[in-house]
Amino acid sequence: MQFRLGLIGHPIQHSLSPWIHNQFLEKSGLTGTYSLIEITPEDSFTRELEKLKSSGLHGFNVTVPYKQKIIPYLDQLEWKAEVTGAVNTVVNQNGKWVGYNTDGTGYVRGLKEQHPSVFEDTACKVLIIGAGGAARGVYQALIAEGLSNIDIANRTTVSAEAIAQKGSDGVQTNVLGLQEAEEVLGHYNLIIQTTAVGMKPNTEEQIISLEQLNEGSIVSDIIYQPLTTKFLQTARRKGAHVHYGHTMLLYQAQYAFQLWTSYNIPIGDLKQQLKTLLEGR
Asked: Does residue 116 sit in the same domain as residue 87?
């Protein structure tokens, strides 16, 4: 069987997804292709999706700006995509398009591999910074893993409150402003930065002060360009354990590949290879 996979979005020419999925294809022994399918704002989104559907793709990833826009074109949504309101993976199941969100699961897989202790203590106190699609995915994935103390900090609390309302029974979530989060940072065992603050080219930006950070806490940033953000540099100087964003990129792709092919490819040395690739950019 020849798998036909791809990525839709704009702009996508610098995407690392082809490299990652070609590695998975090689490691699985499967044959297939992974193509970049650029859909510009000038294109008719409806017409382009009609072409995709008739092309017989087995599955594809979705990136900005189409993670929400694609939802009305799908036949079905799995629960994580429905709760987060965003789709980053589409699977062709017998001619029907089913939308998934693999970001949260990918984040948790990467975190669990590096810091399993987080999930051994259900009383672990977590702070998620940001209230966008990534924050929604991470929030739901942490709840699914049994964590029950997950606060959310954001510039505007309305968006954070909307995420908290999707929590489960038994989950305690407080919504904070960014300044308030700075003041109580010492309460948390795990801090997860999910915004674009600090991403290239604005590498000197940092979302909040880490002055009150406890030594030994885990500090995570989902940004991977640059690999070591100013947020993580500051955390490391404060004695925290840092968790890099490229692991989420790799593990969410692993889960997408599993949905398409039923093959769960071990990450192995791919994490170091991707790190080296990113450091060279």
From this structure: no
**67 annotated active-site:** yes
Binding residue ranges: 15-17, 63, 88, 103, 130-134, 222, 224, 245, 252
Instruction: List binding-site positions for NADP(+).
Output: 130-134, 222, 245
Query: 234 with 252, same domain?
Result: no
Residue 12's domain comprises 2-101+247-279
Q: Which residues contact 1 (CB under 8 A, 6 or more apart)?
A: 30, 31
* Secondary structure element (H or E) that encloses residue 33, with its range: strand 31-38
What is the CA angle 146-147-150, rounded to 5? 150
Tokens of 28: 């699985």
Which member of 67, 80, 125, 230 is catalytic?
67
The annotation places the binding site for shikimate at 15-17, 63, 88, 103, 224, 252
Tell me how many domains the chain contains. 2
Residues ≥6 apart with Cβ < 8 Å to 273: 23
Mean pLDDT per block of 10 residues along the chain (281 residues) reads: 95 95 97 97 96 94 95 96 93 96 96 94 93 93 95 96 91 97 97 96 96 96 96 97 96 98 96 92 77
Q: Are residues 158 and 134 in the same domain?
A: yes
* One domain, residues 192 and 227: yes
Regarding whether 239 and 119 lie in a shared domain, the answer is yes
